[in-house]
């Protein structure tokens, strides 16, 4: 649970410090407006478990045994990462990677409760997506097992999916698009760019030379490509990465970069929410229906 509500946190930021002077953020205090339309991490995990159960049940009818990813409740790390808050990664010990499981939690949060993407071997794709009418002498459901799972989860609210046009089983495209557009606006904003310049100057004084925080975090000496279908193996973190991440965190706090980013993300998300309110309400209603229906799947 958040130590302060989002309105209280924003009030603290704007009244105590002014527009260009943000207080350091505390782990656990990062919340963004879009979250009020989404399920909680525990609720997303419940829906994804029902999704995997229903998908396995359908594919098994055709003699297909898929290796499906696990569903789990992710730690609340996504918003902090979005605004560039590094403290919850414990950079003095773990560098940019974070403690064991942190990167998996980032993926799980972005994927809304599932640890990896569903991977279907090529011979079984027609059953999964319904591009054949029969398989092994059995009728394939319309739009395949994927379509059947959507209909079971969406029961009573399928018209909302039609309105949204979201093809993801657990609908999140509306949230993702708003989040990405808000991020693009933040990165173009002069207030954010000025904070990045102050951060770069701070890093220069510490002996590290990067133009932006993304350059430091994405340094090829420690940045890795993450698979969406295989669990990423943990790796050793070098002393050089730890030293850089520690200096980076100190400089972000010194120039109040995460606080500035939080304020701007909040500002732009609220504007986009106002513009797309109907779609967000529909997405929330569909998710609520899926949460209700997920409790019924596999219970019999």
From TrEMBL:
Keywords per UniProt: Signal
Signal sequence annotation: 1-19
Top-rank lineage group of the source organism: Bacteria
Name assigned to this protein: Lipoprotein
């Amino acid at each position: 649970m958040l130590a302060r509500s989002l309105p209280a946190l924003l009030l603290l930021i704007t009244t105590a410090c002014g527009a260009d002077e943000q207080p350091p953020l505390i782990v656990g205090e990062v919340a963004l407006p879009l979250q009020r339309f989404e399920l909680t991490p525990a609720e997303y995990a419940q829906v994804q478990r029902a999704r995997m159960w229903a998908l396995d049940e359908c594919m098994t009818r055709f003699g297909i045994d898929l290796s499906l990813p696990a569903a789990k409740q992710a730690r609340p790390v996504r918003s902090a990462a979005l605004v560039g808050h590094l403290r919850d990664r414990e950079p003095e010990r773990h560098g940019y990677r974070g403690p064991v499981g942190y990167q998996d939690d980032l993926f799980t949060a972005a994927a809304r409760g599932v640890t990896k993407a569903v991977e279907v071997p090529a011979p079984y794709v027609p059953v999964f997506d319904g591009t054949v009418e029969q398989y092994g002498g059995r009728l394939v459901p319309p739009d395949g097992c994927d379509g059947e799972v959507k209909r079971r989860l969406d029961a009573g609210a399928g018209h909302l999916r039609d309105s949204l046009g979201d093809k993801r089983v657990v609908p999140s495209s509306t949230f993702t698009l708003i989040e990405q557009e808000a991020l693009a606006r933040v990165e173009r904003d002069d207030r954010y760019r000025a904070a990045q310049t102050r951060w770069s100057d701070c890093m220069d004084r510490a002996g590290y030379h990067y133009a932006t925080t993304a350059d430091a975090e994405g340094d090829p000496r420690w940045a890795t490509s993450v698979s969406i279908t295989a669990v990423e193996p943990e790796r050793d973190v070098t002393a050089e990465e730890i030293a850089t991440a520690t200096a980076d965190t100190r400089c972000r706090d010194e120039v109040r970069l995460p606080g500035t980013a939080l304020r701007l993300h909040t500002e732009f998300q609220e504007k986009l929410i106002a513009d797309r309110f109907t779609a967000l309400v529909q997405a929330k209603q569909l998710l609520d229906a899926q949460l209700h229906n997920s409790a019924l799947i596999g219970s019999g």
